[in-house]
Amino acid sequence: MRRCLDLAHLGHMTNGANPCVGALLLSGDAIRSEGYYRKFGGPHAEADCITRLGSLPVYPADELYVSLEPCNIHGKTPPCRDLILKHNIKKVTVCVTDPNPQIAGSSLDQLRNEGVHCQSGLLADQGESLLRSFRTSITQKRPYLILKWAQSRDGLIGRDGERIKISSSLSDRLVHKWRAECDGILVGTNTAIVDNPRLDNRLFFGPSPTRIIFDRNARIPLSHHVLNDQHPTIVLGRDRQDRDFSQTSFVPYAHHDELSLILRDLYQRGLASIFIEGGGKLLQYCLDKGLWDECRVIVSDKWLTQGIEAPILHQSCETSFRIGPDKVLNFRNEAQNS
Questions:
Q1: Helix-strand-coil percent breakdown of the chain, rounded to 5?
Q2: Domain tally, the chain
Q3: Are residues 264 and 176 located together in one domain of the fold?
Q4: Are residues 73 and 187 in the same domain?
Q5: Do both 154 and 263 map to the same domain?
Q6: DSSP per position, 132-201
Q7: What does the radius of gyration of the chain's CA atoms come to, in whole angstroms?
Q8: Does residue 309 have an active-site annotation?
Q9: Exposed, middle or buried: residue 54 (CB in 10 Å: 0-12, 13-18, 19+)?
Q10: Which of 17, 79, 83, 113 has its CA 20 to 30 A from that of 284?
Q11: Among residues 83, 105, 130, which one ends one of the domains?
């Protein structure tokens, strides 16, 4: 099952809003075939695994291991339940059941009724961790929200009107990896103006997220990177009539107070995970309103002595690690994940 989870991670950047899933066929102590959900709309992990057998048959003694309960509904592909029955697989072990209310254990029940021996719950904690984003989108109808900021050793995130580099180049590469793993990246107006960020992924393999920017009063200069129309971009604010855009759309939301509505809109647009990078007011608003699932804080060894204080997070750190001179603190919203 650990191998299934490793396989599932391979599709993390290409499967869109769907869950990451890995599968393998076991014959005795040997893995005969393995697969994973590679991209949105493509074959599910079970189908990918069986297809990779080529002309070889599925033997009666083969066991199917899969990180998520096989589906039993028709979507872009046929139900994996039917595939299991077609190949006469008699033993299926899953990590976790599907949080989708349309499935939620019913597929395993149907397989059992057809004489298939099914068990679930193997390495369930790891499986649940892999499904965090999918579970949030299914149950709350909003994107999974990851807050991120970098702060100095004395708890400051910058200075008013001044762009300051706080974290190291190694941390920059890690942040771009995080960006590649999310569907969208959101910043406030002041961050877009002062930092002039590109909000793309240049330092790690994988796609760039959709850029999402608050700009209620059209204050961001057209010369700034976020308005270069080179990547899909959503501007939350007044339309700009002074240029033709092809990849940039304008949505007439006005303020952070409408964030709950904005998130539902982004969810309807197919954005299942959002990386929120700043600024301080937006991050603190999300914390105060409980609109977050994970928080990742990069703590530098630099001192700023004066400047903008980091957001206040009233929660204990779940895990931490070092990357070069920086320390990364990971938090989970206990209220959202209880």
A1: 30, 25, 45
A2: 2
A3: yes
A4: no
A5: yes
A6: HHHHHHHHHSS-EEEEEEEE-TTSEEEBTTB----S-HHHHHHHHHHHHTSSEEEE-HHHHHHH----S-
A7: 22
A8: no
A9: exposed
A10: 17
A11: 130
Residue 135 lies in a domain: no
Q: Which residue has the tokens 């103006």?
A: 193
Q: Can you give the CATH number for the domain in which 229 is found? A: 3.40.430.10
Is residue 208 included in any domain, yes or no?
yes
Are 163 and 267 members of one domain? yes
Catalytic residue selected from 46, 181, 277, 294 = 46
Contact 58, 88 (CB under 8 A): yes
> Is residue 296 situated within a structural domain?
yes
- 2: tokens are 């650990």
Domain that holds residue 255: 143-337
Q: Determine the Cα–Cα distance for residues 234 and 230; give it in Å rounded to an integer.
A: 12
Of 130, 157, 188, which residue is a domain's last?
130
Same domain, 115 and 216: no
pLDDT in tens, the chain (338 residues): 999 999 999 988 777 678 899 999 999 889 999 999 998 888 999 999 999 999 899 998 899 999 999 999 887 788 999 999 999 999 999 999 998 888 888 999 999 999 999 999 999 999 998 888 888 988 899 999 999 999 999 999 999 888 889 999 999 999 999 999 999 999 999 999 999 999 999 999 989 999 999 999 999 999 999 999 999 999 999 888 878 999 999 998 766 678 999 999 999 998 999 999 988 999 999 999 999 999 999 999 999 989 999 999 988 999 999 999 999 999 999 876 55
CATH code for position 104: 3.40.140.10
Position 338: which residue type? S
Question: What are the contacts of 164-172 at 24+ separation with CB within 8 A?
Answer: 164/304, 164/307, 166/298, 166/300, 166/302, 166/304, 167/298, 167/300, 167/326, 168/300, 168/323, 168/324, 168/325, 168/326, 169/324, 170/323, 170/324, 170/326, 171/298, 171/323, 171/324, 171/326, 171/328, 172/203
Say whether 328 sits in a helix, a strand or coil: strand
